[in-house]
Amino acid sequence: MDGSWLSKYPDYAKAIQKRGHEISNHAYSHPDMSKLSRSAAYQQIDKTEKLLRSVLGVTDNRWFAPPSGDYNQTTVEIAAELGLKTVLWTIDTVDWKKPPADAVVAKISAKLEPGSLILMHPTSTSRDALAGIIAAAKKKGYALGTVSETLSSRRAPVEGRH
């Protein structure tokens, strides 16, 4: 979660968490991390970590997802200092451009493979595409999971594959 969003919408964040979703760090104000000083980059990640703990009680976060996928070595090092691994997506819905939901479903379905991490935002496009994306994944025999589950060596094997 973006820390500024979490600050503005703690009740929504709690509802998301209550539904069993993994909650992780997406910086505080969605900056281009590679353009920040070391101190500013540290503050972006650390401030959000503190909010995750104080607002949601998240004490076991393992992930930092750099906004816009923008990062450099310093970003990765700072995240690591804070106990976080840097993670990116493998498929982008580009939902912020508001494409039709059926186009997003078709794009994801065509690119979906074991271990895919799909970038989605809280947009009407993603909301409307979600059921179709889930159906496409299940039709291919894939299990849905959190980032931690997907990146775990213990993740569920794809049906019919070894």
From TrEMBL:
<dbReference type="Pfam" id="PF01522">
    <property type="entry name" value="Polysacc_deac_1"/>
</dbReference>
<feature type="domain" description="NodB homology">
    <location>
        <begin position="1"/>
        <end position="145"/>
    </location>
</feature>
<protein>
    <recommendedName>
        <fullName>NodB homology domain-containing protein</fullName>
    </recommendedName>
</protein>
<dbReference type="InterPro" id="IPR011330">
    <property type="entry name" value="Glyco_hydro/deAcase_b/a-brl"/>
</dbReference>
<dbReference type="InterPro" id="IPR002509">
    <property type="entry name" value="NODB_dom"/>
</dbReference>
<dbReference type="InterPro" id="IPR050248">
    <property type="entry name" value="Polysacc_deacetylase_ArnD"/>
</dbReference>
